[in-house]
Automatic annotation (TrEMBL):
PROSITE patterns: ADH_SHORT. The chain crosses the membrane at residues 25-43. The keyword Transmembrane applies. This is Retinol dehydrogenase 5. Belongs to the short-chain dehydrogenases/reductases (SDR) family. GO terms for biological process: retinoid metabolic process; steroid metabolic process. GO terms for molecular function: all-trans-retinol dehydrogenase (NAD+) activity. Keywords: Membrane, Oxidoreductase, Transmembrane, Transmembrane helix. The gene is RDH5. The keyword Transmembrane applies.
Amino acid sequence: MDSVYQYLGYPAQANDDSGTSRDNLWLYGVGTFMVLWALGWLYRDSLEIEDIKEKYVFVTGCDSGFGNLLCKRLDRRGFRVIAGCLTDKGADDLKRATGPYLKTVLLDVTSTGSIQKAMEYTKQEVGDNGLWGIVNNAGRSLPMGPSEWMRLEDFTSTLKVNMTGVIEMTLTFLPLIKQAQGRIVNVASVLGRVAANGGGYCISKFAVESFSDCLRRDIHYFGIKVCIIEPGFFKTAVTSLDPIERELHRLWNQLTPEVKASYGDKYLEKYIQIQRLIMNAVCDSDLSKVTNCMEHALASSYPRTRYSAGWDAKLGWIPLSYMPSCVIDIGLKLVMPRPAKSV
């Protein structure tokens, strides 16, 4: 290093002033490196694939919400979109709002037969091009609530869509994706990083995170990229208050008198009030923050492994996921109501 300093005009044996200058030189060097690295990363992140109009993308859960908006945006960009819709009405509405190149197919991700039919249809559509991307967006959130209030079927009804559906869709369509050396985009959630409530939703989103990580490491040899979208809270059917409250009442009504007594008569009312407060405070109405991430994962030459969508995700949930578990435990204790017979 003395030779470097001598070359730059600093004496080999530095006094206090030259030592300070050397420290400043290091700071300038580190600062310059960080700025150049950031500029290089931004440039690399902005690069996009070519021949978008020849790329086929399959999206699930397109009746409403993120999937519906994504299909419209991809269609405008020139992608050949195949939209999986659960209902005829959802498919018809989407067709009327998009161009002639967007195709729809009825799809229930909990049905092996429905998934197989969708794959056969897609195989005919894409031909030798293969499938550039699949976006596993279909999902459900309900029921959510205290774990003790749930029955086994309350968990499995969510897991069939959010977990098993994602796995089966991916494995069924994987040969078409390998053919195109394409992309797999799985929609998880910030609640796949921080388990904040009971029911199957958090469990399923943790599973999506794990499945996606394992899959990415297994198939990167084939040129396939696996991306995870981690949205915060947004105003969609998943976060609509009316269905959430109906499900909470249903769960409460199926409890035994002993369990109800342990929580107290006012617990349900307080729980619902907190849910309203949280949803009204944090839910973002700008769904494009999520679809921008999905679109980047499909169109970028160098897609990211994870995308955090929404300021609550970036500044709240994701940093919280790196903190000790006791921090989250204490936070939830302060927010959630206490049962009548708590210790």
